[in-house]
Structure formats: structure tokens, C-alpha cells
Structure prediction request, 152 residues.
Amino acid sequence: MTTEFSPRLFERDSEIRALGEGLLACALPREAWTHEAHLGACLWLLSERPDIDVDAEIGGIIRRFNESVGGVNDDTQGYHDSITRAYVAGVRLFLSETTATSLVERVNAMLLSDVGRRDWPLRFYSRELLFSVPARRGFVEPDRMPLPVAHK
Prediction:
């Protein structure tokens, strides 16, 4: 079964930087925090914010943002640790392989790649495990295959 895949692409580097900065400042409107925004902000953090330890801080950053727009981080909604960490691994892998140079070129190419797909984590996780409470609350190792590791 093939599903239609057409992400919203970005036009300028400044749009992506504004998303990342808005995320950090808890200044984005809730509706701006889309799938594409999640991935664009992740790539921006990994490539342009070496002062932020993404592995250590991403959970707190997203939880704080969710709460700032009236969201709840609990067993059924809000921040999902295993999905987030799967995408962080995917974005790192994409960055290690891309030849695109500008921020917007890298983000758009990633969004159009397999890593950009909404179902990408299901390559590594069964639906049952990925959508479990333990996988939402903390990182759970995949049960289908290991997450990819970026090439140095």
C-alpha cells in the first residue's frame, strides 16, 4: 500500500531559523509546530546550534514548548521520546550523507527523503511498541531493526 507523501517545503533559510528560534523561545503558534517544522528545527539544531546538546536537551525543549501553547505531555499526547530520538538519528544520518549546502536545501531534501516521511520510525519499530506508553515516556530500543548511525 503506497500512501501519498507531499511535505510542505520551505522557501528560505530564515523560515527554518525562525522555527528553531521560536521553538527554543516558546514563541511559535501551536499550529506552526507541524511535522515539517519538527524536522526542520531538528536539522537546524544539529547543524547550526553546537551550543545545544540535542541528545540531552531535546526532550525538555519540546515538552516546554508543548506546555507553553497549552499542550499536555502525558501517556497519550505531547512529547514522544522514542519517535523524537528516532528522527534525531535519521536527521543525523541525512546530514552525514547530503551534499546540499544551504539550510533550506538541506531541510527540503530531507523532507523529500525517506527520513522525512511520517511513517519512517515504523521501519524500526512495530506499531505496538512505538505507540506504547513506555516508548512515549522514554527511549525504547526498536524491535524491528536498530536505528541508523550517521557516518562520520
The mean pLDDT is 95. Residues 81-97 form the longest helix (17 residues).
